[in-house]
Amino acid sequence: MNQNNHVKIEVADPSALGLLGLAIVTLVASASKFGIISSVSLVIPWAIFLGAFVQLIACLNDIKHGNVFGTTAFGGYAFFWFGMAMSWMIQLGVFGEAMRAAADPKTFGFAFIGYLIFTLYMTIGAVETNKTLLVIFILIDFLFIGLALSSFGIAYHFTHFLAALAELLIALVSFYASAANVLNKTFGREFLPLGKPLGIFKNHAK
């Protein structure tokens, strides 16, 4: 007689960890944009470990949850920070003077346009998650608008400031969202509200 045993493996919701990574890296990066930090040299480790690896870990655990939105969001932005870290290292001459000299900063602009497109459709998806996450994605939209325009030198001072301000606000809201995910799960109740989804896109017909 054949007997099938089913083993259920529970995986913790990785949202709090992923949002913490986002909060830390955007806080540090915004300080650089505001000119509080004079160089991106020490932004790079936070971009790699908090922006990239932490969100990649969250992505891989969301895969186990079957969460397409979380997987795509955390994975997409994880590799954004890997790309930014490597780009900054090229600009700093880590990979040699020839590579540094050949780097064209306008390349950033096209990458930021690509990530703006990505973030726009993820913002539509965020409408059906919670209001706090929706606010984060709207702020990321403004971040990439500012980054893309400033990379092409369009109204540079204003768009650079827009990017810096949006990034700082992303950090603050992400800290709140991370705390809410941790404390709500720990206490088994809504300790910090995240806001219900708007519910305007999903098909609720039975």
Name the descriptors.
206 residues, mainly alpha, globular, transmembrane helix
Shape: globular
The residue-averaged pLDDT reads 94
Question: Helical region count?
Answer: 7
N-to-C order of helices and strands: HHHHHHH
How large a portion of the residues is in β-strands, by DSSP E? under 5%
CA gyration radius, whole angstroms: 19 Å
Q: Low-confidence parts, pLDDT < 50 over ≥5 residues?
A: none
Quote the distance from N terminus to C terminus.
41 Å
| Total beta strands | 0
- The percent of residues in helical segments reads over 70%
**Structural class from helices and strands?**
mainly alpha
Major sheet details: none
Subcellular location: Membrane
Pfam family, one: Gpr1_Fun34_YaaH
Protein name: Acetate uptake transporter
Membrane topology: Multi-pass membrane protein
